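DOMAIN: structural biology
WANTED: fold as tokens
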Amino acid sequence: MEGGCCSTSTMTSTENKRKRRNHQQQNKPYRGIRMRKWGKWVAEIREPNKRSRIWLGSYTTPVAAARAYDTAVFYLRGPSARLNFPELILEEDDLHEISTASIRKKATEVGARVDAIQTALHQSESNSESRLSEKPDLNKFPEGSEED
């Protein structure tokens, strides 16, 4: 009887962990990033063998934050690191010992570049959608269809 009580509480805690993990996966599409209350995505990573964190920046898109994280984790942990986008990391870079400041700088440069590209793509998509959704003025003659 006592074993049954403990297994029930264990099942409840494992179910809670599973629910929490599923909820986190839905809200957090990539490793090393999180979303602020106001919608910005931030990236940070823990330094190896230390309790301190390296701040990698705040971005408008989750992809930009994830790319910044990937850059930092690659420089910290090498080619064996678990990356969000393993196909996008250039392994040509020299992985010699570099400082935390250098890692932060490289990661924020990558994140800012990706953020600018993602934001431009999103704006161009929304502009084309708004042009398509605009209703034509039925009181105007169509342009370019002049007949003799």
About this structure: The beta strands are 33-35, 41-46, 53-59. The two ends are 96 Å apart (CA to CA). The chain has a mean pLDDT of 78.
